[in-house]
Amino acid sequence: MPIQLTCPNGHHLTAKESNAGKTGKCPVCKAAVSIPVLHQTVISDSAIMNILGNPDPLRKAGAAGTSAVSPKEHGRGSQSSVTMPHMKICPSCEQEIDMGYHICPHCHTYITGLNDF
Hints:
117 residues, mainly beta, two-stranded antiparallel sheet, 8 strands, 7% helix, rod-shaped
């Protein structure tokens, strides 16, 4: 990713990332220009999962992402109602996960979409 900077005389410059931390000359006015080092913080998926914790997949009915669904609605007869969370499929590992998850607990892929907001 190119580094955007401005020389002391106001000229807008672009430098290669490989030149970060070095000093060069402005090609327009020849003034000395220090090319800054950009620090990028990379957080692994495992670190994100540690921050978020492991969500409880058996949340109570009425919580976000769950609803009471009767077995009759699933074509299993007319017995008492059963609470079943809405599920979705992880596009990376194809595991079935709770609709409330934004990071797959199996492969740690970030899977939220616009419908989750």
